[in-house]
Structure formats: structure tokens, C-alpha cells
Amino acid sequence: MLQGFQTSGKCIEKAHYRIRYMKSFRPLSVKEDIEFKEARPILYLNTAAVASLFNSRNAGSTSNRSNWSTIMSYLKSHASYLGLKQDRFTILLPSGLPDYTIDIVNGEQVKKVKVNRPKALCFDYLQLKETFGLDLETEVVAEVQDMQEEVITEMQHTFKQNEFDFT
Predict the structure, then answer these.
(1) CA distance 61 to 66
(2) Which H or E run contains 109?
(3) How far apart, in whole angstroms, are the C-alpha atoms of residue 113 and residue 16?
(4) H helices within the chain, ranges in order?
(5) CA angle, corner 67, sides to 66 and 72, nearest 5?
(6) I need a surface site. Which of 68, 98, 120, 153 has the fewest CB within 10 A?
(7) In this predicted structure, what is the pLDDT of residue 53?
(8) Between β-strands 34-45 and 81-86, what pairing exists: parallel, antiparallel or unpaired?
(9) pTM for this entry
(10) Hey, is 2 helix, strand or coil?
(11) What is the per-residue pLDDT for 52?
(12) Exposed, middle or buried, 136 (CB in 10 Å: 0-12/13-18/19+)?
């Protein structure tokens, strides 16, 4: 479900989820850290934001609440579940764009993205990846780099098409 929302552009990193690489993790209301041998990816899931995606997908369904509570029970009982932890998430407008304010700092206009700090469900992302094939990691590529790669690929393709056979 989450993968489908992300692939379709509805589930947005830093608004609906965040992946943080950590050597230790301490959920809320737990006294001891969970220690990892090396930095491990932890998936922070903004459940309120994901619930609204789920409810919009099932608009008109009278069983949304019970379906969502079943999903929440399943998620919290899964072996990859680490606990709850507050984290910062971007607030989105109904259009799906980040909400922001414009402040004046030192006489300059500064655009600040609005955020909230809900309690997120946290999971061992590697375990989810191995178990379900979940892949939420995204890559940011500058348009110039992307265009350069496209041009190189096109040139290689053209060169191969124009090779001469001297046999």
C-alpha cells in the first residue's frame, strides 16, 4: 500500500515518512537504547498523514476506520516495529505541495516550510525491505546531471547505430 502511494507520487518523503540512519534508537517511554552494530535505516511513518492517504483511497467506504485500526494493529505487532518516536514532518497543502510561511529576516524574505512533530511509528527498514521488498529510498539528481546522462546514452545509441560493418 505504502509503496503504491509513493510510486504514484502521493506518499512524499519528509511528509508521510522519513528514513534515518542510526547507530542507536530509543522509542518513547523506553529507558534503554536499541543498539546496532552499524548505522541502520529506521523508517519513521507519519501515521496521521498516511491514514489520510488511505482514507482518500477508500472514499465512500463505511469501513475505513475499522480497516485503518486493523492495519495499525498489524503494523504495531510486526517484528520490524521498534516503537513510537516524535519526528519532524512537512505539512502539505491539499494540492500536495508543502505549506510555508514567508518571514522577513534581516530585511530579506525567507520562505520557511511548515512542519509538525507527531509521534511516528518506527520500523527496522532493512527488515521491511527484505520481507516485503519495500523500497522507499529516493535519489535526488540535479537536472543538469540527468540531462548529461541522457545525452551520453543517446550518443552511445547513435554511435552503435552508425557503426559500419567492413566484412
Answers:
(1) 11
(2) strand 108-113
(3) 15
(4) 2-7, 47-57, 64-77, 125-132, 143-161
(5) 95
(6) 153
(7) 81
(8) unpaired
(9) 0.75
(10) helix
(11) 83
(12) buried
